[in-house]
From TrEMBL, chain A:
This is MHD domain-containing protein. It comes from Zingiber officinale (Ginger). InterPro entries: Adaptor_comp_med_subunit (IPR050431), AP2_Mu_C_sf (IPR036168), Clathrin_mu (IPR001392), Clathrin_mu_CS (IPR018240), Longin-like_dom_sf (IPR011012), MHD (IPR028565). GO terms for cellular component: clathrin adaptor complex; endomembrane system. It is found in: Endomembrane system. Pfam families: Adap_comp_sub. Residues 254-588 form the MHD domain.
TrEMBL record, chain B:
It comes from the Eukaryota. Adaptor protein complexes are heterotetramers composed of two large adaptins (beta-type subunit and alpha-type or delta-type or epsilon-type or gamma-type subunit), a medium adaptin (mu-type subunit) and a small adaptin (sigma-type subunit). One of its GO terms (biological process) is intracellular protein transport. InterPro entries: AP_beta (IPR026739), AP_complex_bsu_1_2_4 (IPR016342), ARM-like (IPR011989), ARM-type_fold (IPR016024), Clathrin/coatomer_adapt-like_N (IPR002553). Keywords: Membrane, Protein transport, Transport. One of its GO terms (molecular function) is clathrin binding. Subunit of clathrin-associated adaptor protein complex that plays a role in protein sorting in the late-Golgi/trans-Golgi network (TGN) and/or endosomes. The AP complexes mediate both the recruitment of clathrin to membranes and the recognition of sorting signals within the cytosolic tails of transmembrane cargo molecules. SUPFAM superfamilies: ARM repeat. This is Beta-adaptin-like protein. It comes from Zingiber officinale. It is found in: Endomembrane system.
Amino acid sequence: MISQFFVLSQRGDNIVFRDCKFSFFCSFIFDSRFTYNILAKQKQGLDLYIALPFGGYGVDCGAEFAFQSYSILSTVVVLYISTELIDRGEVPKGSAEIFFRKVKFWKEDEEEEAPPVFVGLSNVDGVNYIHVKVAGLFFVATTRVNVSPSLVLELLQRIARVIKDYLGILNEDSLRKNFVLVYELLDEVIDFGYPQTTSTEILKSYVFNEPIVVDAARLPTLGPASMFMQGAKRMPGTAVTKSVVATEPGGRKREEIFVDIIEKISVTFSSSGYILTSEIDGTIQMKSYLTGNPEIRLALNEDLGIGKGSASLYDYRSSAGGAVILDDCNFHESVRLDSFDVDRTLALIPPDGEFAVMNYRMTQEFTPPFRVNALIEEAGQLKAEVIIKVRADFATSVTANTITVQMPVPTYTSRIESYKNDFHRRVKGAVSVGDIVKFSSLDATEDLSCTVGVSFELEAGAVGQTTDFKEGAKRLEWCLKKACLSHIFHQIMIVSFKLLINTLHLNLKTLQIVGGAEHTLRTKLTFSQESHGNIAREAGPVNLNFTIPMYNASKLQVRYLQIAKKSPSYNPYRWVRYVTQSNSYVARL
Amino acid sequence: MAPPPIVQQKSSSPSQPSGYVFFLPSLSVLLLNRKPLRFLIPSYCLSRKSEVSDLKLQLRQLAGSRAPGADDSKRDLFKRVISYMTVGIDVSAAFSEMVMCSATSDIVLKKMCYLYVGNYARCHPDLALLTINFLQKDCRDVDPMIRGLALRSLCSLRVPNLVEYLVSPLSSGLEDGSPYVRMVAVLGVLKLYHISATTCFDSDFPASLKNLMLTDSDAQVVANCLFVLQEIWNLEANKSEEANRERETLLSKQTIYYLLNRIKEFNEWAQCLILELISKYIPSDSNDIFDIMNLLEDRLQHANGAVVLATIKVFLHLTMSMTDVHQQVYERLKAPLLTLVGSGSSEQSYAVLSHLHLLVMRAPMLFSSDYKHFYCQFSDPSYIKKLKLEMLTAIANESNTYEIVTELCEYAGNVDVPIARESIRAVGKIALQQYDVNAIVDRLLQFLEMEKDYVTAETLVLVKDLLRKYPQWSHDCIAVVGNISSKNVQEPKAKAALIWMLGEYSKDMPDAPYILENLIENWDDENAAEVLVFNY
């Protein structure tokens, strides 16, 4: 079913490579059906296979070597590659290389991002490449048969999760440190291309290597990798970064269970502030470190309703009594729904590792956590003013963090400034820093950097909260994705750079917004040419990124989490956490 | 650059001479970084040989040792050997030492040794022969884990002239008391088939698998039997009549119901592959169809998208001939599919959306009230946005055209130019479907006022198409088109569209000759076929 599985870093380095049909490890594997000149040499009793793309450099290495092609899929290991070839950068292209080139230079049909499923060399070799991006790594499977893509995509995602369960943290570093363990896992997960088991629970009895734990605190903030996570609709893993097999320093495992209710919300506001669409995609995620797998019961809101009858029309009439009505939901296979219809309780024996107990979708009306109003108006010739107002519509006990406001501005914008207002000079330490606007230029030779006074202008009512502001928080960043991704996607980025240069990226990373607060940002734009017509059509929309811990928009609650007791003294730690994240939070101009 | 991997931390091991520390990082750089490669090659080549022979020496010293802690040092050495192997360094020279060291009860060591053996056996058949003995011995170990692992490694050697050694461990593996060993043995049969099909048939393995499939208590064993039989009979089907018949029996009512009744015992991946098989099954009557659908109904609530999609495939295939039920199935599928779109990563949503796309194309009416689900989200990657735009175009009808077009117009100003273009085209396509043309034409003309080159270009092409279909709108359109400065029109298709309109409606446009004049001035530089064709 699956021919090969490999993990690539963003730079295209092979981190893990497994040929599922043959047990080979190698860094350079290529497909024999692809036209290559195969040159073989006998040296010191060892076969040296050297491969060249057809019509490549005419290295005179003797007779052409025809090798045996075994079955549908045939691969050859390049055991040793002459240094001369490496010097010229002419390393044979393996499937990993072909994949990487495709992804990197994806331009078919004007698309800029390679879709998760594509054919290798336009039907020449019949290899399908299927990949997912997790934690900035490519998890790739290749296949020659007509297998369900969603099956492979789900499998890849699951493999990534199993590896994460074992290693605690999934990144390049931890993979490289634990590659023997990863291969061991892969051997049990996929045998001869057929998926066997992906349950961390069952794998535990087959896998014996101990993970080498990578210290989470020591990790760099994944510069380029984090971009992937932001871009993709990544479901954030729970904050737990502990391996399922690792033992605590004390030698005893801590008995605990984490239940996270994670909601991704999508809201679109019209220019007049009216809600055009709103949707919540939620997951109840569980990670269990309980020994002996006791049964647990998870009780949800008693008045929880599922399905809106046959009508799936969006209607914003609030349902009677404020009951939570989900449009639809699905459950993990371990969940038993015997009493779900009666008292909305889920019974399950949680397997080890992280998994989604339940996914749900809701289009019922809810109060969006933020009201966003954005306005752009012309302020004289070659000038415009942007006013973005964000109001937090939740309890003051809740604080949202890592808020980012993004707004594309017209292409011909030459200068952006936000300026201080006298009022704020009096607020001690509140608004002082952040006088830098960073420009990254198209090519490195020309640096557009320009420093402008920048600040947030706050409404009088919000003064009380300004003390929450930290130094450096009020920075207006002219942030370009190019800078973050330059490593791998250099080529692609140059293309999309032209698009992205116009994004006003307000980075309020350290800014926290407390419930009930209202913040207004005023920014002046200066243009290099006169705008024609409607300026609002050329800018925007404003997008908000945020995370709000201990808040959920849907009001779905875990009433209780009951763990079957093994003994009277058995009292494991239970963590129930709520997180709301923005998926697409857009205000139009 | 990422920090150097495994090797770095190895240097702290006391059992190794400190000399390693100096060149090991250079190897890791080889792994991680392409550029410095050139400068490192000489030292790497020099050190490679001495390193391998050094490893050999150390392995040999440890081979017979029963001292406490010997296994730990072996583990470290094995790990190093394997790390070299994965980087592509040839460590086959240490083969016999590795085999010697593997006479151990430590399962971690054994596993690493199997990895190593599996990698080198095919290229070194003579060395592989060395391992047969200890692998066969391990196949009779008391620990089922070791039996299974040894059997798997034995089958993965892929050395044709060693096939004879495979048959007996495989047949005893198929009858092993441990499901793990049986599971491995079943796939071992497939491996054997790929090395030597005749040996596989001579030993009558397919028949034993068939028997095992229908009787085994372990679901994964059953699933593996099914996979193997499917693959073998599919490959053999062209060659023999018998294989063809065998392939048919996999689809017999008896087999299908046997699998269906046990479906919940299988893990999600096996479920997908079994559902795939069921989708090929031809039901005998409508009761048959409803039985299967009732059995599988709850699979639609599975959290794994692949299971849901496989179930959907079965449903759609089964009801193909029953039009009214088929429509009901569509209704039933909608909610679970829409939930899946939002619940996974964007790659998973892509797979689900691609399926939705197909359904939408088949039955646009059914989705006409769900159009809001297909609005593009800020964070969607372009491949998803594109699919959504196509779906929005397909489901537009009298009731929702206004909303959809309003939404699409928002995307026209998008920073993502390809998507902006795509949405303008989508607006045009909807207009050609004859819904609410009046409002759409107004919108299109507004696009022209945005004065963005690509927007103008796309819009001109669309206006031209619209005028061909609805000449009655010419008056409104021409007024706006006449104002366009030809300098802003660069793309050949747009130029061609502009020229066509100028020619067709010249009597309504007093400026037409002047605009054409501008275009003619640049005639010599023009080389796009679309534009040139208008010369004649």
